[in-house]
Amino acid sequence: MAHRLEALTPALTSCCKGPGYATPLDAMRNGPREKIVYLPCIVPPGFRENRHNYLATVDVDPQSPSYGKVIHRLYIPYASDELHHSGWNACSSCHGDASKARDKLILPCLDGDRIYIVDMGKDPREPRMHKIVETTDVQRVSGLGSPHTSHCLASGEILISCVGDADGNGGKSGFILLDGQDFSLKGNWEKPHSRVPDFGYDFWYQPRHDVMVSSEWGSPRAWKAGFKIEDIKSGHYGQKIHMWNWTDRTLRQSIDLGPEGMVPLEVRFLHDPDATEGFVGCALSSTVFRFYKKPDGSYKADKVIAIPPKSVQGWALPDMPGLITDILVSLDDRFLYFSNWLHGDIRQYDITDTRNPKLVGQVWLGGSICKDGNVKVTKDTERTSQPDPIFLKSGKRLEGGPQMIQLSLDGKRLYVTNSLYSSWDVQFYPEMARQGSVMLQIDVDNVKGGLTLNKNFLTDFGDEPNGPVLAHEIRYPGGDCTSDIWI
């Protein structure tokens, strides 16, 4: 795909002055090195009575005296609101519009159903609250709840996916549309009275092919209470991806991934706006499916990566899945990265041939099967021994497993945090929930492939002034490979 991106770059880089970049390769080659990042920080359950969640600004400039430190905290007013993912009011999809500016961060609350609009333009190092879209308004206007992913649109509007309905049930999901000027609720994006999926989660759009893809998590009432295998058997979790008609805002096709595609979470088209294919990571099945457009205009999905479970003793189940919880694609569409939250590794695949991804990099960062832990691996088709624990530069043992990942624009650094969702953190990694999470940095070989932990970088959210917190998704001020879409 890189050769097609190459052809787009010269014609576009000099003609437009809107937010973001003309092409993915323009971002990769000409984007600045990240100096600060933003992360939502969640107070662990049981400690929220007098503490509030916040958006942290972290200094990641190696030349700065505050390298790796939290330099600002924007607290939100409602302690029950669990921040999770974020997006921008404008991105590269608006690059052709000089009147647009990337100056507001959109923060939907997975718990609480509010949407926070944060002003990042006045001082990017010290964000301030701009507006709060209240729970009652979100639920009244849309009938939906548990807002998750947000993406800006070329129209200047903001599209937000919702996992379930306003009462926390499955059986109905959809999308909220926000006005890009005053951030008022415009209603549901999907066509009125049209068919919608039982569950929502993530989405990505490709307007040149009049298509949007969305994925599924499960019933909010189920996952908010922690993971239970019975909920899988009862149908409270999803196993489908959905292809939407972008223009008509209707559900065109649902693709059932079957038992090998349980709980499809993060979903990505390739960055090339002409591409008709992408990938979705299926958490519980620990598989990656490639979805693609067929000659007849319909879409199909094939399993292209499978992480075998490990037979274990001393854990909740006899077989432990890898639990693929985040995936991303490099801006040149050459590498796919994903995290196995339970097994404890991050993997890098060469996807030059999208039908046959090749493993070219891997790094182990904690997880549930370290040799000094309580879990004994009795059968492992990939490793001959359990991985060693990781001790951070502070001397503290790394708890939890790698979860959210974000790649630098140039593809040379991968940032990673280890919190999934607070109730699941407590369930699977209680020591991490007690001590707080971390952000690490991985050095990436983006030529031949390869991943190595940068031992000189650490942001320890266990050292926060008001107590440990759980940091989640990572966002760059100028956009990144999971926020920006090209049209």
TrEMBL record:
InterPro entries: Se-bd, WD40/YVTN_repeat-like_dom_sf. GO terms for molecular function: methanethiol oxidase activity; selenium binding. It comes from Littorina saxatilis. Gene3D superfamilies: YVTN repeat-like/Quinoprotein amine dehydrogenase (2.130.10.10). Pathway: Organosulfur degradation. It catalyses: methanethiol + O2 + H2O = hydrogen sulfide + formaldehyde + H2O2 + H(+). Keywords: Selenium. Its EC number is 1.8.3.4. Belongs to the selenium-binding protein family. This is Methanethiol oxidase.
